[in-house]
């Protein structure tokens, strides 16, 4: 690796690191991006299947994803996004329901008629009811229990939010849900890039290098040191890179392990719990029910939702098969996360077969099963996080942070990552050379 002094070293080649490096190199900064794995894309990475590539974790684009769509525009990929209308299902106990129209709600028998009406009316008004309230300091439970009543809270929201955020879900600020409702609805137009997420990652890679940026794969950063004058990054093999700025995109618990003692003292003190995820991909010989998203509530299955990806991509994307992701968000220290992939695949296959037995779905319909895990998906945001959110510029240093801990109150997504990357890269550009560096190149 050539190690002349760089303007910026970007740590992490997920969408945040790539979008930041792209913005910086477009503006003429000399940038080196270091990625520990042998692939770019982070949580958006993929694996080969026949002639195509499949994402390890389900991903889609929403029409309101302005930051991401703006980036795709600049990369010439915006017209490559296929938009489709998608629907939602719901598994409650052993039964499956469509969950899209007023009629679906009226037929949703786990609630009484009065509760169904209350659910419909409150849901229609929820975005409006949240305006002018300090939802960042309001517990999700306090807000929703009040509006929907005890039964709906216990029957629907406890399993839904409990599955996303674990035991601390009731304390997550109601602002998170409010923002999410602004991004998604049951019947929603969703987009998927025609060439898969790999096409976006490849375009960013090519554009960064065309603008003079350097990208190094399989290059884990081992340590970071620095002060208000300059920064130094040491790669795990021992190579050292001096730079004016470091822009780190790795989750904060991982960053703490990389920072040399003096730098570590300046890092944000807020300790955040993070949720990880287990995703099982079922390649099927038949579709399930045709809903993009189906929460799985009060069932014996270990997963808490199913995403039928083929609804968005079409079956040609998987050589004529249908792809369904089953997911469970969980702490990286949980027994499930530590469990053997083959054991998870076997158990969840049995659970999927039981859940959809009535279709009918049989073992012969399952062509292939793959298991992927990610330890850090997003923080479990604590109450009042707007005022506790760590700053992107670490005081007394030339280290900038752009992570999922910084996107709140936006929903964790490629869109919010691109928006954050743009603003943090903009900060690096605005203060370029501001440090007292006598040997600046
Ligand atoms: C199951 C699931 C479903 C999702 N669905 C959607 C969706 O539908 N739409 C959407 O927009 N978003 C979705 N997301 C969210 C989205 O994937 C993330 O918000 C986004 O990818 C975060 O990007 P990032 O670059 O900040 O982090 P990451 O993607 O985690 O990237 C961090 C990178 O840093 C690297 N790294 C770590 N340590 C080091 C080190 N020491 N040295 C060098 N490199 C290092 C990692 O290898 C990784 O590549 C989903 C995520 C999951 C898990």
From TrEMBL:
Gene3D superfamilies from the UniProt entry: FAD/NAD(P)-binding domain
Top-level division of the source organism's lineage: Bacteria
Residues in Amine oxidase domain copies: 15-403
Ranges in coiled-coil conformation: none
InterPro entries, alphabetized: Amino_oxidase (IPR002937), FAD/NAD-bd_sf (IPR036188), Zeta_carotene_desat/Oxidored (IPR050464)
PANTHER family, alphabetized: PROTOPORPHYRINOGEN OXIDASE (PTHR42923)
Protein name (record): Protoporphyrinogen oxidase
Species whose genome carries this gene: Amycolatopsis magusensis
């Amino acid at each position: 690796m050539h190690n002349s002094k760089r303007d910026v070293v970007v740590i992490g080649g997920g969408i945040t690191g790539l979008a930041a490096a792209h913005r910086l190199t477009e503006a003429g900064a000399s940038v080196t991006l270091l990625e520990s794995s042998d692939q770019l894309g982070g949580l958006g990475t993929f694996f080969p299947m026949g002639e195509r590539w499949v994402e390890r974790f389900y991903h889609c684009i929403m029409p309101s994803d302005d930051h991401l769509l703006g980036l795709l525009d600049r990369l010439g990929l915006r017209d490559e996004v296929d938009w489709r209308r998608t629907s939602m299902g719901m598994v409650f106990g052993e039964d499956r329901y469509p969950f899209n129209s007023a009629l679906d709600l009226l037929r949703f028998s786990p609630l009484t008629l009065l509760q169904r009406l209350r659910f419909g009316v409150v849901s229609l008004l929820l975005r409006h009811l949240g305006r002018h309230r300090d939802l960042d300091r309001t517990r999700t439970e306090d807000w929703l229990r009040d509006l929907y009543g005890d039964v709906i809270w216990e029957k629907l929201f406890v399993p839904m939010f409990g599955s996303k955020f674990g035991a601390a879900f009731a304390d997550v600020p109601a602002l998170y849900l409010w923002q999410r409702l602004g991004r998604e609805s049951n019947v929603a137009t969703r987009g998927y890039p025609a060439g898969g997420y790999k096409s976006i990652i490849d375009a960013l890679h090519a554009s960064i290098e065309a603008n003079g940026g350097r990208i190094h794969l399989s290059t884990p950063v081992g340590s970071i040191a620095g002060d208000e004058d300059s920064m130094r990054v040491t790669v795990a093999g021992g190579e050292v890179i001096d730079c004016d700025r470091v822009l780190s995109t790795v989750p904060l618990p991982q960053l703490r392990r990389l920072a040399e003692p003096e730098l570590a003292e300046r890092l944000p003190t807020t300790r955040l719990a993070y949720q990880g995820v287990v995703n099982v991909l079922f390649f099927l010989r038949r579709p399930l029910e045709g809903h993009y998203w189906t929460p799985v509530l009060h069932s014996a299955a270990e997963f808490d939702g199913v995403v039928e990806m083929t609804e968005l991509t079409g079956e040609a994307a998987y050589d004529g098969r249908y792809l369904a992701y089953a997911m469970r968000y969980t702490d990286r220290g949980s027994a499930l996360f530590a469990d053997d992939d083959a054991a998870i695949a076997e158990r969840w296959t049995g659970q999927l077969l039981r859940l959809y037995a009535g279709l009918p779905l049989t073992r012969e319909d399952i062509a292939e099963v793959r298991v992927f895990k990610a330890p850090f998906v997003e923080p479990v945001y604590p109450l009042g996080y707007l005022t506790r959110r760590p700053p992107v510029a670490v005081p007394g240093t030339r280290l900038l942070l752009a992570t999922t801990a910084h996107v709140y109150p936006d929903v964790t997504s490629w869109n919010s990552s691109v928006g954050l990357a743009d603003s943090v890269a903009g900060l690096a550009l605005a203060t370029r050379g501001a440090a007292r560096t006598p040997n600046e190149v």
